[in-house]
Amino acid sequence: MPLERRGRIAFVEEIPFGTALSVRRWKLTNGLDLLILPDRSAPVVSYQTWFRVGSRHERPGKTGLAHFFEHLMFKETKNVGPGDFDRMLESVGGETNAATWTDWTAYYENVPKREIELAVRLEADRMVNLVLQEPQVESEREVVINERKFRVEDDVEGATNEKLYATAYKRHPYRWPTIGWMKDIVGYTVDDCLAFYRTYYAPNNATVVVAGDVGEGAVLDLIVEHYGRIPRSRLPTENGATEPVQRAERAIELEQPTDTEKLALGWVGPEFGTRDYAVMTVLNDLLTGGRSSRLYRALVSEGEIASEVHGSLAPFHDPGLFELWANARPGTSSDDLRAVVESELAALRRDRPSGEELDKAKNRLELSFLHGMETVSGKADQVGFHSTVTGNLTGIFLQLEEWRSVTPDDVRAAAGRFLRNDRRTRISVLPAKGKKS
Asked: Does the residue 239 lie in any domain?
């Protein structure tokens, strides 16, 4: 090991990644986690930075700051002018973007392998040298205000989703939207932004993932050179709020500018990475995965009372929502949709699904998972996500084994445990006056 990095970084562990690859974990003395996944299948590198901060780390009155920072990080630093971050990466054939959710904020650059130094330098620079003054905050505030209007206030599904979470959660921070409440966005100050940046954008709150055609020694030298002197921050104690068990259905009617009624149902389910999460993932595919799924046939292709149905299970650090959504056809009510959904769920709680039906759901999940792992960026996504949300990289491929081992009895038991009517939140979306079909 070269003298310049001796004592500045330590090897932690090696974790198998599938059958042919492995991830090697290193840690800098300032707390930065580094995960290296060599994959020489193509001469490209995916460089990702995952910060352990999302909307659940915020507090009432300052919601949306994590998402706001995703925008601010592309503005300017002491060393890189406005807009130059994107221009520099695009000039070498790279691409960059970012995302924020409840438990994390992630940034990525996909570049030709010869340009990895540029990605490392730019990311390390904006971790510590971001310019946060009134002009930067004000210009981005307007962008986020317009984004919220477009994605939530002027969007039927966005507004419904926000109401669903705000109703299903009473205590946990998942009750507020990742983009934040409008009154909070309007009220951000420069001091709010500086405090957030100095707290959460620090090496001891970050994981860097490097996947692709790289040599480990060269990566270690770059990481130590560019991150080694960035100081730690003092991280606050996480919000430990737990959601009380729901004892009765919560039902709301929501008027929206829509021509037909819609139905959104939510149940607080299991947290990501657990056995229950694997079972509920299979259950969801059985209900809504493709045209032969139970709810698609009952509501759309055979029942002909809905134009669309879909379901999802939130992959959150704490218990997230299992959601079912359906859009009614003209002349059909949300109550009609609900009756069919309740009938299908009752059948699932009563009778075990067939082995053939279960295998089809498992095969769909496995195909989707493996397809997403075909690129180095897809592999890096999985490494960063699992490291940040569960801290367990072995869980990346363990979920395949979990899906494969799900039995008909598992599905029936999970439906009975999680999908109870008294644990349900229901949003009935009705056409606003003057918009009824």
From this structure: no
Q: What is the pLDDT of residue 436?
A: 42
> Residue 94's domain is classified under what CATH number?
3.30.830.10
Report which of 324, 400, 319 is spatially closest to residue 365, judged by C-alpha positions.
400
Residue found under tokens 């570049």: 111
Q: How far apart are CA 1 and CA 11, in angstroms?
A: 11
Cα separation, 353 vs 361, in Å, equals 11
Band of residue 240 on the pLDDT scale cut at 50, 70, 90: confident
Distance CA 230, CA 219 (A): 17
The pair phi, psi for residue 14, each rounded to 5°, is -120, 130
Q: Provide the number of structural domains found in the chain.
A: 2
Instruction: Indicate the pTM of the whole model.
Output: 0.96
Residue type, position 428, single letter: S
Considering the candidates 70, 123, 140, 261, report the single residue annotated as catalytic.
70
Nearest to 163 by CA among 65, 265, 35, 18: 265
Q: What percent of the chain is modeled with pLDDT above 70?
A: 97
Residue 395: predicted pLDDT: 95
- Mean pLDDT within 68-85: 97
**Of the candidates 79, 65, 105, 78, the residue with the CA atom closest to the CA atom of residue 190:** 65
Average pLDDT over residues 183-206: 98
Residue type present at position 309: V
Active-site annotation holds for 261: no
Could you list the residue range(s) of the whole structural domain that residue 169 is in?
Answer: 9-227
Q: DSSP secondary structure string, 360-380?
A: HHHHHHHHHHHHHTSSHHHHH
What pLDDT, in 10s, does the model give residues 252-291?
Answer: 999 999 999 999 999 999 999 999 999 999 999 999 999 9
In angstroms, the CA 262 to CA 329 distance is: 9
Q: Which residues, other chains included, contact 87 with Cβ-Cβ below 8 Å and sequence gap of 6+?
A: none
Residue 354 CB neighbour total at 10 angstroms: 10
